[in-house]
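Shape matters. As here.
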Amino acid sequence: MLCAGLLLTGCGSGEGALNTLQVGDDEVQIIRTDIAYSGGGTETLFLISPFRDRPMDERISVARASLKQDGACRLATEDPGILRAMTAKHTAGPNDQLLIAPVKC
């Protein structure tokens, strides 16, 4: 599974559903975890393809648009500094197509 290539804490011990959504030309895989975020919600992995370097603002925008399609969920924070740190904390290697963000439903 995707978790094998990531250092995603808690992966395999209760991760949630995998949703794949189309946002414009991008495909977004949303993997929910059971890792609680201190500001409310749970940490969620957004894997965006096609794979290419994406600035944090673009990743946040794609994640926000995918959550609008997915239902009544929203990002618990859109602070680029927090999301950059959260993504770096849980991934190994380049992560310019990934975003790990807290999601509230």
